[in-house]
Amino acid sequence: MSFMFHPYPYKDLNAVNAVAPRDTVVEGALPVARRIAALFGEGCRTVGLDGYAGTEFDVLYQLLAAQLQPRGVRIVRTEALLLPPETLRERLRDSLPEDRSLDPVLLYGVRVPRQYEDLFCPDALETLSRDLRGEEKLLVLGRGALCQTLRGLYGCRIWADITPRTAALNYKYGKAHNFGEPAALPFGAMMRRNYYVDFELAVELRWTLLRQEALDWYMAADDMAHPSLLPYGELRSLFDELCAKPLRCRPVYLEGVWGGFYLKRLRNLPREMKNCAWVFDMIPMEVSLAAVWPGHEIEVPFFTFVQQQGAKLLGRPAYDAFGGYFPVRFNYDDTFHSSGNMSIQCHPDADWVVKQHGELGRQDESYYVCVAGQGACTYLGFEGENDCEAFFAAAEKAQETGETIDYKRYVHAVPSKPGTQVMIPAGTIHASGHNQVILEIGSLTVGSYTYKLYDYQRIDPQTGQPRPIHLAAGRKVIHPERTARWVTENLVNHGGVKRRGEGYEERIVGEHALLYFALHTETFDRVIEDDTRDRFHVLALTEGEQVRIESAADPARHFVANYLDVIVVPADLGPYRIVNLGQGPVTVHKTCLKDDFETCAK
């Protein structure tokens, strides 16, 4: 998995969830602006309008100014409250360290522990607070408008939300820049600050507002030519309906230097895409959720839904253990008919990533092989006991000389065939090989920490520069004892039959003491029954054409999934069944939390 710096500008219209019609939604730029302006004639003297990082507040200002100025409403932009840029940079320095020995291109950082008040001038904040207590009609617009200091001073509070895909594209296309920076930073530096500061501040504030139910209106603002505005109570009702049945997120698609073509063809992605390396099908912090009814669509960040639904979605044990975060992430990696392998890499364990990056826990992964072409394999572990040091020595020399190395001499290859499941505990050297499609399932990290150890001397097409290598950081977290023998005994197809009956079998295909999630397959002819037991499930149809996932109590609460769709089954659903709608037996891959997940390393 990678940071989502360059999502392809494409909205998958097939990934939607049908809901009942809503008649309180205001749609369109002018109707939304007029509805907000009307609040001042309905008893509101002060309105706060905040939003996610990357929201087009300049466009919002233009729309609202035309409606509010004739009504005698003054608009205050929160940029006017900010500390001077140099003071802000100094205040945020700890979140954006510059140690190029460990992070050569300054990709990583430390999740910011601050809040918006730390970015504002105290005197300016006090002056605005005093004005909000006065008699003047005021709209406070921009990031931080609903910070704790100001939140209780408004007659009406609005949150403008955009999906992570749109946020990244708005920054890329110059529609937004980092809060408090007078001009756009170089794109890599801008997105690094976003992930460790801007996005973090917005996510935490939105979470507070949802937990406290401190919103009156919610705006879906991806498309500022056609935003949607709805009362917060309507949003809550919409989310309740979505959480009462299985659902599918809207994926994000990304090109890459090792990208393949299987999923591009399967999902009929735009012809202009060079390839499709990653499909972020259900990475909770990066994907969205689209609710549709005839002629209408509302698209929201999936993590907004997670934050608002909480234990109903996750289950109470998971909600308590992971602090409300969705603890597992899912994406496809496609090297089918591509030009080569994924980089040889490793990920950090908790001791490193929590201390270095302020993260929530270790970065474990797993690969399930969905499609395998000729010669496909997954690289996992070192061949022998002495190969770790030999590999690092060869890779370090290659960094200096630009030569390629015989990586197969050091790194063990596991032959791939559909149904192969490998577990990748943090610190294990690994890579997806050429000519396969894998379902990657990983643990909870807000960011993404892929320490590339060797990348075949490739050039990154996005930057025109060699792809960054993190040998020094990799040495800090690598586990040299994970050799071919250990990998075979512990990490490949590790499990057994869980239950079987007439026409069905459920197998555990991946489980390890270090990982808190378990990986199963359910193979059946016509139907199989299951039960969430107050823990979410995530399903992927890996063999077969189509299935219907339905509530056992109310089959009308269902989702029809096609081949390789990734479906979330909310914990609240309880007993459910999966019905085969195609010909021949099907296999559904299931991810769930282990029975003892609270005791596992996180």
From TrEMBL:
Tell me if Cytoplasm is a UniProt keyword of this record: no
Phosphoprotein: is it a keyword of this entry?
no
Q: Which residues form a coiled coil?
A: none
A single GO molecular function term of this UniProt record? metal ion binding
- Source organism, top-level taxon: Bacteria
Recite the UniProt keywords alphabetically: Isomerase, Metal-binding, Zinc
Q: Which InterPro entries does its entry note?
A: Carb_Metab_Reg_Kinase/Isom, RmlC-like_jellyroll, RmlC_Cupin_sf
PANTHER family according to UniProt: FRUCTOKINASE, TRANSCRIPTIONAL REPRESSOR MPRA
Q: What is this protein called?
A: Phosphoheptose isomerase
